[in-house]
C-alpha cells in the first residue's frame, strides 16, 4: 500500500474525484452550447498548459445539422487538429482535419494541414532519405576535400619517409641525427598540436599559410616521420646478403639501394603503410580545427544547423567507404608487389 | 705445381700480411698469398678459421686492419689515415669489385628479378651497357650454365642447384678476371652438388682464375692446382692435391681434419 501511504496523496485524489462528480451533471445537460464561450474556455485551459482538456472543451461544439452554419464547428475542429498534432496524436489530428474537409472540401487551411500531417506520419526511412538528399551535396563537397588531403599525403609521405629512412641509416652522423630528431619530434607530439603550430604559430614568425597548405604540410611531415620508421625497418629487414651480392657485382651503395634493396621492401611495407594510411583518412578530420572545411567539418556544420543526426551518420558512411576502398587497393598492391614470391 | 709459382709471371692478385679483426677476435692473422692467372686455388680448413673473411677481404667486402692487396701488380683499395687503413671511396672500390666475381654459399639471387634480370643486372646497371647488349650477354651466360629455359622465371621457383648456377652466371656476366667461390655447394642437397661442380669445371677448363673454399675433398682434388689449409686465421700448410691428400703434408692437424671429413 505504498502508493497511498501519504495522507496528502489520498486527499488530492479524493478531491479530484469529487470535482469530477460535480462536473458530470453540467456536461450532460449543457444542451445549447455557446461557441464563443467554448473558444474562450478552451483558450484559458490552453493558457494553463493542459492541451488534452482544451481538446475536450472544444469537442463540446457539435456537428451542425443540415443547413446550419458550420463555421464554429470547422474552427473548433481545426484547433483540435492542431492541438492533437502538438500532442503527437497523428490519427486524431488527421481525423479532425477530415471532419472539416467533409464539410468544406475546399478549405485550404485544412488541406495544408492534412498534407503536413501526412508528411509527419511518413515512415522513418523516407525522412532519412529526404535528409540524405538534403545533406549530401555539402557533405560530398567536404568529402572531396578530405580525399584530396588523403591522396596528397599519400603521395608526399612515402617519399618523405624514404628520405628520412635513408637518412637514419646513413653513416654520415649529422644527417642521421637530423632524421632521428624529425622522427622523434613528429611522432612524439600530437598531430593537432603540429597543425596548430603551423597554422596559428608560424604567422608570429612572419609565415602565414593558407589552411590547405598548412594542412598538407602538417599531415605530410607527420606521416613522413611515421613512414620513415616503418621504411627504415623494412630496409633493415632485407637479408644482408642482398647488399653483399649487389656490391659484389660492383654496384655502388646508391645503385644497390635503388635496384636491389628498396624494391624488395615494397611487399613487406604495404601492410604497415596501409595501416598508417587508414589512420590518415581519419586523421584528416583534425584539420577541421584549422579552418579547413572537409568531411568532418561539413557534417558538424549540418548537425549544428539542423540538429539532425543523419548528417553525422552520413559522414561516418563516407569515411567507411573511403577506408574500405583504400583497404582493397592496398591489398591489390601488396599482392602485385609480392608476385615474384609465388611459386 | 704446373708452373704457376714461376716468379717471371705476375700474380693476378697478391695479398701481403692481411689482418682482419672483429673487436678482440682476430679472424685473419697475417695471411700472404699470390694467385696467378689461370690458377685454381682451393682453400680448406675447419669452421671459423677465417676462410670466408679472407675471401670477403679480397673482394673488399671486409675492411682489413693490416696488409696490402695488389691487383695485377698495383696496390689497390686502401689509404692510410691517422695510422689506420681505410677503404677507398666507392668510385675506386666498385670497379675493382666488378673485376672479381663472387659466389656465395646462400646464392643471394635478387628475388624480385627474373633469372634473366639477375644476370643482366651487372652489365646493365654497373657497366651501363645498352639493354639489348646486356640481355645478349646474360643469355650467353645462362646458356653456359645450362639454364636458357629458365630465363623468365623468378628465383623462388628454382632448385638450389639451379639458383647457384644462376648466381655463377650473374658473376660471369661482368666478365671478371677472378672468381671467388665461398662453399658454393654447402647449402645444396647432395644430389644437386654435381651440377654446380660441373659448371665450375667448365669455367676452370676455360682458364678462369679462381679461389674456392670447399669442404668437398674429392672436388678439391680434381680441380685444384694448389690446396691451402687454413687454421686460426692463417695458412698452416699448402701443396698440390697429390702432395696434400696423399701424405697430408705430414701434419697431424690436417690428418685429423681430413679423416673427420672423409
Ligand atoms: N661480421 C663479423 N663480426 C664478428 N665476428 C665475425 C664476423 N664475421 C666473422 N666473424 C668471426 O670471424 C671468425 C672467422 O669467420 P669466417 O666466417 O671467416 O670463418 P670460416 O672459415 O668461413 O668458417 P665456416 O667454415 O664456418 O664458414 C669466426 O670466429 C667468426 O665468428
Ligand atoms: Mg665461411
In short:
The complex is a heterodimer of chains A (343) and B (262). With 343 residues, chain A is mostly helical.
What this model shows, in words?
The complex is a heterodimer of chains A (343) and B (262). Chain A has helices spanning 7-29, 35-48, 51-58, 71-86, 90-103, 108-120, 124-168, 173-188, 191-201, 211-237, 240-248, 253-283, 295-306, 310-337. Chain A is mostly helical and 343 residues long. Chain A folds into 2 domains: 32-121, Serine Threonine Protein Phosphatase 5, Tetratricopeptide repeat (Alpha Horseshoe); 125-342, MetI-like fold (Orthogonal Bundle). In chain A, helix 4 (71-86) runs antiparallel to helix 5 and helix 8 crosses helix 10. The radius of gyration of chain A is 36 Å and the shape is elongated. Mean pLDDT of chain A is 88; it is low at 1-5. By secondary structure, chain B is α/β, with parallel strands linked by helices. Chain B is built from 9 helices and 12 strands. Chain B has helices at 51-58, 90-98, 115-126, 131-144, 160-172, 190-205, 217-223, 241-247, 252-261, and strands spanning 13-22, 25-35, 40-44, 66-71, 74-75, 78-81, 84-87, 100-103, 178-182, 209-213, 226-231, 234-239. In chain B, strands 8-9-10-3-11-12 form a 6-stranded mixed sheet, with helices on both faces. In chain B, strands 2-1-4-5 form a 4-stranded antiparallel sheet, covered by helices on one side. In chain B, strand 6 and strand 7 (84-87) form a beta hairpin. In chain B, helix 3 crosses helix 4 (131-144). The longest helix of chain B is centred in the C-terminal third of the chain and has 16 residues, at 190-205. The complex binds adenosine-5'-triphosphate (ATP) and magnesium ion. Adenosine-5'-triphosphate (ATP) binds at residues 22, 25, 27, 45, 47-53 of chain B.
